[in-house]
């Protein structure tokens, strides 16, 4: 199911022959289209800013948040469109082969689900378009002035949504492999009633864990920077919407402002939090593998050299546990959610105080 969903998300971009989603399919990328898309998004964003003076109507705080947010959103699209298809194009093959190899080694079960594999993608698309359709409805009287800039924003926002979904699909594939490895350990302890030492089984577990770590390293190399941009983008986008709720009631009605700000803030948070939770689930499942190796150590009847081998095996599994980083700046886990909340709250308080004084 994992490879089918991954293939479906990539093939979905082929419906739009010149979109970035079509270009990230590692075996059918079109370099010319990638460059054209990147230039069109950049030129459209710049023209939308300069011709209509898009930021001139904003207060200082919202102007800064908008500029930073738009720059980060473009960086996400630029990385997927250009970097992953020119400088890091070969990593798509490495990632695919790593996931395929570890699936065979860890004996991942391919169960048939009653629900079609593409339903999740369709449901999330419905949620995305529903939220943005409601926002467009409330802003319908102000779209004509900045149509070009708004159009570029909504295209990049949809690309960002699809990239996050693709990352969640790949992380779920890694999760199933660590879960299958954990099941191998549990089945072994339940079926081996004689409790004899098995060097072959320990070597098999070490090899699978090492292969998964190499796959995770490839994943970090490919997606470390866009995940960093996605995480950073959450802060200015939410601060911008908070500023919209409290200090922009003169443009829209107070109730409409709360609807716009609340919907977009909740959707931005939802996407990033789901992505971080998927990272954390993979880490927790790998920790269960290490815990299972400890139980296996006490389960096997070992003496002398065999006991030393089990000790080395446990240390090897701990050393090769997955570590997800955002371009090696910081590690990603459940704690990242608290860091986001902390950062947003830390900026929100002085922002409100500053805007209250200046008004």
UniProtKB/TrEMBL annotation:
<dbReference type="InterPro" id="IPR013604">
    <property type="entry name" value="7TM_chemorcpt"/>
</dbReference>
<keyword id="KW-0812">Transmembrane</keyword>
<dbReference type="GO" id="GO:0005886">
    <property type="term" value="C:plasma membrane"/>
</dbReference>
<feature type="transmembrane region" description="Helical">
    <location>
        <begin position="115"/>
        <end position="137"/>
    </location>
</feature>
<dbReference type="GO" id="GO:0007165">
    <property type="term" value="P:signal transduction"/>
</dbReference>
<dbReference type="GO" id="GO:0008049">
    <property type="term" value="P:male courtship behavior"/>
</dbReference>
<keyword id="KW-1133">Transmembrane helix</keyword>
<comment type="similarity">
    <text>Belongs to the insect chemoreceptor superfamily. Gustatory receptor (GR) family.</text>
</comment>
<feature type="transmembrane region" description="Helical">
    <location>
        <begin position="259"/>
        <end position="279"/>
    </location>
</feature>
<dbReference type="GO" id="GO:0043025">
    <property type="term" value="C:neuronal cell body"/>
</dbReference>
<dbReference type="GO" id="GO:0030425">
    <property type="term" value="C:dendrite"/>
</dbReference>
<feature type="transmembrane region" description="Helical">
    <location>
        <begin position="223"/>
        <end position="247"/>
    </location>
</feature>
<dbReference type="Pfam" id="PF08395">
    <property type="entry name" value="7tm_7"/>
</dbReference>
<dbReference type="GO" id="GO:0030424">
    <property type="term" value="C:axon"/>
</dbReference>
<dbReference type="GO" id="GO:0007635">
    <property type="term" value="P:chemosensory behavior"/>
</dbReference>
<dbReference type="GO" id="GO:0050909">
    <property type="term" value="P:sensory perception of taste"/>
</dbReference>
<feature type="transmembrane region" description="Helical">
    <location>
        <begin position="157"/>
        <end position="175"/>
    </location>
</feature>
<keyword id="KW-0807">Transducer</keyword>
<feature type="transmembrane region" description="Helical">
    <location>
        <begin position="31"/>
        <end position="51"/>
    </location>
</feature>
<comment type="function">
    <text>Gustatory receptor which mediates acceptance or avoidance behavior, depending on its substrates.</text>
</comment>
<keyword id="KW-0472">Membrane</keyword>
<feature type="transmembrane region" description="Helical">
    <location>
        <begin position="71"/>
        <end position="87"/>
    </location>
</feature>
<keyword id="KW-1003">Cell membrane</keyword>
<feature type="transmembrane region" description="Helical">
    <location>
        <begin position="6"/>
        <end position="24"/>
    </location>
</feature>
<protein>
    <recommendedName>
        <fullName>Gustatory receptor</fullName>
    </recommendedName>
</protein>
<keyword id="KW-0675">Receptor</keyword>
């Amino acid at each position: 199911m994992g490879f089918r969903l991954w293939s479906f998300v990539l093939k979905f971009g082929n419906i739009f022959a010149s979109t970035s989603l079509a270009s990230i399919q590692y075996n059918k990328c079109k370099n010319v289209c990638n460059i054209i898309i990147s230039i069109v998004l950049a030129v459209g964003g710049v023209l939308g800013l300069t011709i209509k003076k898009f930021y001139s109507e904003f207060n200082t705080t919202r102007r800064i948040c908008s500029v930073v947010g738009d720059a980060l959103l473009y960086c996400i699209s630029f990385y997927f469109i250009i970097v992953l298809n020119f400088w890091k194009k070969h990593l798509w093959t490495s990632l695919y082969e790593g996931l395929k190899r570890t699936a065979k080694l860890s004996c991942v079960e391919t169960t048939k689900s009653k629900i079609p594999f593409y339903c999740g993608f369709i449901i999330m698309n419905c949620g995305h378009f529903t939220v943005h359709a409601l926002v467009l409805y409330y802003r319908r009287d102000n779209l004509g002035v900045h149509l070009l800039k708004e159009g570029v924003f909504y295209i990049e926002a949809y690309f960002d949504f699809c990239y996050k979904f693709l990352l969640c699909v790949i992380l779920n594939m890694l999760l199933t492999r660590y879960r299958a490895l954990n099941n191998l350990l549990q089945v072994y302890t339940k079926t081996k009633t004689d409790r004899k030492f098995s060097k072959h089984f320990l070597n098999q577990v070490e090899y699978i864990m090492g292969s998964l770590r190499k796959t995770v390293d490839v994943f970090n190399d490919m997606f470390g920077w866009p995940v960093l941009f996605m995480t950073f983008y959450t802060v200015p986008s939410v601060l911008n919407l908070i500023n919209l709720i409290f200090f922009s009631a003169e443009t829209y009605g107070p109730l409409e402002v709360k609807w716009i700000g609340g919907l977009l803030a909740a959707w931005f948070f939802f996407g990033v939090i789901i992505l971080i939770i998927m990272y954390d689930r993979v880490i927790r499942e790998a920790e269960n593998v290490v815990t299972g190796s400890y139980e296996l150590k006490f389960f096997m009847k070992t003496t002398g050299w065999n006991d030393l081998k089990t000790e080395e095996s446990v240390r090897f599994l701990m050393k090769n546990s997955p570590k997800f980083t955002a371009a090696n700046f910081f590690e990603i886990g459940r704690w990242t959610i608290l860091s986001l909340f902390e950062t947003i709250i830390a900026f929100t308080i002085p922002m409100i105080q500053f805007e209250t004084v200046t008004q």
